[in-house]
């Protein structure tokens, strides 16, 4: 009831029709974990699968859209870099591996990383009936801005194709 009332208030009182679910997932590599988990950043706030589903249902009843926030470059694993497969760690301007908030390893956006991320996130996001994924970025981090820009373009072109197969849209 509380979730539905919050959506009604946001919609009716403020005209909100686009809702982003920030840090809704189990961790930066795992969309959901059973029926309840804690937030991925501080592991303090409980998150219930049924609450997410209720919010999304009410958003759709009111004609709105629900966006699943996903950090496009971050992961829980520091062992995903496979240069032979085109996946590279994100190297900052100082030549060091970049860690998001000092804790999460990051990867360079490109076609190969897009395929990895879409394979992890799209099935769960579609199953939960989100309308799409909001790929968050950390801004320009890599030492080569031109390569980072080109990689971001590759990532978005590839994820657009993959997400379409799940009837999902994307924002960035």
Number of helices: 4
Question: Main sheet: which strands, in order across?
Answer: 1-4-7-8
How far apart are the first and last residues' alpha carbons, in Å? 31 Å
Question: Helix-strand pattern, N to C?
Answer: HEEEHEEEHEHE
Gyration radius over CA: 17 Å
Which of globular, elongated, flat, extended, rod-shaped describes the shape?
globular
Q: Tell me about the largest β-sheet.
A: 4 strands, parallel
| Poorly predicted tracts of residues | none
Q: Say how many strands there are.
A: 8
Describe this structure in words.
This protein is α/β, with parallel strands linked by helices and 172 residues long. The chain is built from four helices and eight strands. The chain has helices at residues 2-14, 49-61, 111-127, 145-164; strands at residues 18-21, 36-38, 46-48, 65-71, 99-100, 104-105, 132-136, 169-171. The strands form three sheets. It has a four-stranded parallel β-sheet. Strands 2-3 form a two-stranded antiparallel sheet. The protein has a two-stranded antiparallel sheet with strand order 5-6. Strand 5 (99-100) and strand 6 (104-105) form a beta hairpin. Helix 1 runs parallel beside helix 2 (49-61). The two termini are 31 Å apart.
